[in-house]
């Protein structure tokens, strides 16, 4: 039987908070510092007291020697054992009067004992405290000479003593003098120790208080972060950590946490929206699939119960079941397409000639609705011109155009016109390096030497992006020879440009638009670069000129195609929902025509997978215009020449 491993219990230290740990470490370090400092101070104090006691002992012994020499042992005197002076014979006996006189000369608190040369005591010692006397070694000549007159420590009956051994000069008398010091030193040390303990406790208390305040104040931001994290854990993802200076650890931590929290919130919101869309999608798909299934089941039950017996009724029931099955199959196919688009599966990517794709879609629509006026034009209303290549899946792009064309045919009145327009917008204005000083600008690589803005701004803006133009704009026509284009600027009414106009008083260049380059301009245009000649600048549907969009996401410009109808148009209130899945403007009409409500959702998903944008606008004069913008490839693909197919 396997033994289950138990989780190890945290130790005593691990259970402490970080504040407590830091405070404990600080207090321990402070205690060690105070203890070491106190020991060092007390030891130095003891050495100082011993030195001071030795000085007193030496001074007292010299005074005693002088007085004893003059009053008792004259002419002898006390001297240290290493004195080289000549010795004179002297008596080693001291009478009672002399001894009493000698004791009166001794300072208080000193112990004095005289010896003969053999170390035998002469008379009784002078002891300030009979119960506390030093335990001296045998004092003889050898001991005196070995000590050399230096003080030394000896034990006593109740304390330690400092002693000094000497020889009385010119006599055979030895003397030892001692003074108790341990008691005095201990008293002073004790007072010093108590003082240092008090100071140490006060210092520890101050360090504890200041340290707790400092640590608590330093960790306050961490507690704020902890509270914020608790609120986030409770479900409030909008909480953020307070900001601090970026050059501090807390500043970098708060910035990193806020960045992480922002990403988590975005991810969570995205997941929530995705789950909501999935639930709504499943609900809508179930609803849409239930209708044909109920129809098929109803007819099947009627047939099984014998309610349908006539051959015409049976044929009608079979026809209705087949129709509903087909509609359900279309719905399932659309669901599969959307699922694959959501998965962003890799598709065959290659260059796409959008000019040809849109032209084919227009031709197919004309074949399907021969009673309509279906045209294939440029964005300016003139003949459609070749456009730069884009990259993507040609089959998906064709599906987009087919879906939009089918909607335009199905949902507009009969005999109304449908237009398929294609062109380029958002190209940068470039200054010709050779003409920067003369004010000549090439817009999108095609403006000639008659540009009207170069003199003032050309030298300043080497590369300037034009705004998103949604109205009548400069018209550019491509010549018959690829790589040789001439372009001029003129305002365009809805019906298109009128050749032959001259420059207006404001300085707008208005010239004829030739279908091919003039002979003398052909070499010059070629010298300015074949890449510039292959770009079609921006042209768009007629209307007022407005600049209301940026070019972010399309640094190289964009190819635009539009599907314009002239029906009843779309209510502006429902435009924001028009690309939602299963959303229908007219439920009954959509189901009658076999639609699933997923067509525009598929279109939007395909366009976004190609890094493009789709929008809905009102057609001038009434109707709806679906506008698709796709980025121009930045890998150097040249403009497709589709005139070969037209020939």
Give a quick set of tags describing it:
six-stranded antiparallel β-sheet, Helix Hairpins, Beta-Lactamase, Heat Shock Protein 90, disordered C terminus, 647 residues, rod-shaped, alpha+beta, 4 domains
What does this structure look like?
The protein is of the alpha+beta class and 647 residues long. It has four domains: 19-186, Beta-Lactamase (2-Layer Sandwich); 249-343, Orthogonal Bundle (Helix Hairpins), CATH 1.10.287; 350-425 and 550-646, Heat Shock Protein 90; 428-465 and 474-537, no CATH class. The chain contains 14 helices and 18 strands. Strands 1, 2, 3, 4, 5 and 6 form a six-stranded antiparallel sheet that branches. Strands 8-10-16-18-17 form a five-stranded mixed sheet, covered by helices on one side. A three-stranded antiparallel sheet has the order 12-11-13, with no helix packed on it. A hairpin with a 5-residue loop joins β17 (613-618) and β18. It is rod-shaped, with a radius of gyration of 56 Å. 27% of the residues are buried.
